[in-house]
């Protein structure tokens, strides 16, 4: 990763960071690969992997990261001086897609072999038709001394979910209802392909077919990210939600002034946000709490000191936000109307789907004002329900003052999404400012 100073020529900065983001996404077709990409960047910057099942010896100035399930990650730096609380920036590693079922091969009309798949997360189904797809994920392998996990990514156009021709479905353009079991199974091959799925996966993993004990495999869109617009002011890519925030916050974490600020910097990427965060590696699990409590103990601090630190901590939850749709502006709130390339979005919801309140928003606004970062406001229309995200879910395990933000995008939960070329750079700058700031934020006091 090439570090681009934020005071360089803005157009160069925006374009270069977007190129880096698109390359990160290209290397991260699943949550497992996204975490592997994060781990690679962290190790290149001197971070040491810790195992949850091992004893931890932490040093002042040390750089560390921990993964769980290979699909969630927490990284942190131990400050050289005393600190007043944790400074956490979290996003998620997963995106809506299709997961391959355990018995994947389906015969169709004695002529084709299809893959048996099921929906993962709340997706737009129609855009998955008629585009080149492939498979990626992890495989559990039997080896001489036990079981070994391997990531695989079939790097070629392998599958297609074909539309039914308009001649056979005259309702296709009139709100046709798709059935995930009957309409969305991808074609894998002709009838001769029957029985070849496991051999293909074994070949990709470099093992014998009989060594495969389990698979967590997902479809991924083969289309690469690119620049769009008359002045290349937009980007189009798979998995912008939420790898755009994951990458931007990680880059800001790595670029931040390690000698600045009075906080304990923590970067988080959680899996399974798209399905409710209720897994052992999701934001609703004990993962974050376990890490923070173990860090506290390893540094010789008491349980009371841990609770005092948590009370003085602050969390930024970053998950992409809805920009006003140019073809459906009526779907947005009458006043709060985010646009791509116009800055970071602060998200509010009266029913606590987002953690933002007047206090946490004020903290964020001060940080962004001082760092010259534009920002916008998002609320749902009052007659439309919105989704929840990481902030309020992670607060069920570690009670933190928090704010929910995102980067504005279109086509959310499509296999190919659209965002602004400037906004990733704004998030990088925010993460740098946040991790480098002197802050005191308690129920009684706000000082920045």
Structure description:
This protein is of the alpha/beta class and 448 residues long. The protein has 2 domains: 10-95 and 238-447, 3-Layer(aba) Sandwich (Aminopeptidase), CATH 3.40.630; 97-221, Aminopeptidase i, Domain 2 (Roll). It contains 9 helices and 22 strands. The chain has helices at 10-26, 31-44, 197-205, 240-255, 287-298, 303-311, 358-370, 390-394, 423-436, and strands spanning 48-50, 63-68, 72-77, 85-92, 97-108, 112-120, 133-143, 146-153, 187-190, 212-221, 226-228, 234-237, 263-270, 314-318, 321-322, 344-347, 375-378, 401-406, 408-410, 417-420, 440-441, 446-447. Helix 4 (240-255) packs across helix 9. The chain is globular, with a radius of gyration of 22 Å. Mean pLDDT is 94; it is low at 1-7.
Q: Into how many domains do the coordinates divide? A: 2
- Give the biggest sheet: 9 strands, mixed
CATH architecture tag of the largest domain: 3-Layer(aba) Sandwich
Output the radius of gyration.
22 Å
The coarse silhouette is: globular
Strand % is 25-35%
Low-confidence stretches: 1-7
State the helical fraction.
10-25%
CATH H-level superfamily title of the largest domain: Zn peptidases
Number of DSSP helices? Answer: 9
Q: Report the span from N to C terminus.
A: 30 Å
Topology overview:
Layout: H1 10-26, H2 31-44, E1 48-50, E2 63-68, E3 72-77, E4 85-92, E5 97-108, E6 112-120, E7 133-143, E8 146-153, E9 187-190, H3 197-205, E10 212-221, E11 226-228, E12 234-237, H4 240-255, E13 263-270, H5 287-298, H6 303-311, E14 314-318, E15 321-322, E16 344-347, H7 358-370, E17 375-378, H8 390-394, E18 401-406, E19 408-410, E20 417-420, H9 423-436, E21 440-441, E22 446-447
Parallel strand pairs: 1-2, 4-13, 4-14, 14-18, 15-19, 16-17
Antiparallel strand pairs: 2-3, 3-13, 5-6, 6-9, 7-8, 7-10, 11-12, 12-20, 16-18, 19-20, 21-22
Helix pairs in contact: 4-9
């Amino acid at each position: 990763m090439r570090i681009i100073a934020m005071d360089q020529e803005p157009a160069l900065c925006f374009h270069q960071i977007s190129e880096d983001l698109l390359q990160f996404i290209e290397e991260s077709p699943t949550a497992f690969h996204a975490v592997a990409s994060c781990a690679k960047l962290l190790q290149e910057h001197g971070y040491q992997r810790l195992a949850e099942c091992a004893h931890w010896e932490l040093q002042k100035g040390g750089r560390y990261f921990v993964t769980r399930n290979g699909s969630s990650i927490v990284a942190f730096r131990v400050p050289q001086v005393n600190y007043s609380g944790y400074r956490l920036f979290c996003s998620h590693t997963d995106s809506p897609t299709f997961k391959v079922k355990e018995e994947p091969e389906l015969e169709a009309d004695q002529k084709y072999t299809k893959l048996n798949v099921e929906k993962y997360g709340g997706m737009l189904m129609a855009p998955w038709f008629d585009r080149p797809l492939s498979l990626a994920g992890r495989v559990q392998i039997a080896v001489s001394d036990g079981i070994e996990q391997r990531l695989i990514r079939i790097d070629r156009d392998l599958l297609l979910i074909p539309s039914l021709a308009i001649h056979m479905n005259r309702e296709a353009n009139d709100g046709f209802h798709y059935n995930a079991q009957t309409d969305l199974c991808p074609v894998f091959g002709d009838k001769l392909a029957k029985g070849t799925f496991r051999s293909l996966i074994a070949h990709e993993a470099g093992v014998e077919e009989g060594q495969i004990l389990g698979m967590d495999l997902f479809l991924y869109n083969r289309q690469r990210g690119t620049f769009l617009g008359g002045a290349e002011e937009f980007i189009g890519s798979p998995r912008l939600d939420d790898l755009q925030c994951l990458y931007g916050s990680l880059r800001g974490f790595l670029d931040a002034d390690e000698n600045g600020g009075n906080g304990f910097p923590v970067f988080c990427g959680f899996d399974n946000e798209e399905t409710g965060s209720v897994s052992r590696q999701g934001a609703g699990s004990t993962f974050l709490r376990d890490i923070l409590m173990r860090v506290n103990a390893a540094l010789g601090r008491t349980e009371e000191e841990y609770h005092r630190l948590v009370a003085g901590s602050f969390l930024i939850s970053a998950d992409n936000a809805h920009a006003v749709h140019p073809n459906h502006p009526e779907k947005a709130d009458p006043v709060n109307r985010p646009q791509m390339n116009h800055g970071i979005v602060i998200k509010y919801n009266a029913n606590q789907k987002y953690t933002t309140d007047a206090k946490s928003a004020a903290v964020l606004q001060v940080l962004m004002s001082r760092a010259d970062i534009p920002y916008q406001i998002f609320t749902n229309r009052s007659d439309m329900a919105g989704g929840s995200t990481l902030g309020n879910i992670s607060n069920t395990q570690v009670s933190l003052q928090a704010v929910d933000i995102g980067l504005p995008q279109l086509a959310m939960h499509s296999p190919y999404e659209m965002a602004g070329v400037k906004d990733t750079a704004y998030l990088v700058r925010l993460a740098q400012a946040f991790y480098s700031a002197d802050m005191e934020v308690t129920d009684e006091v706000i000082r920045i």
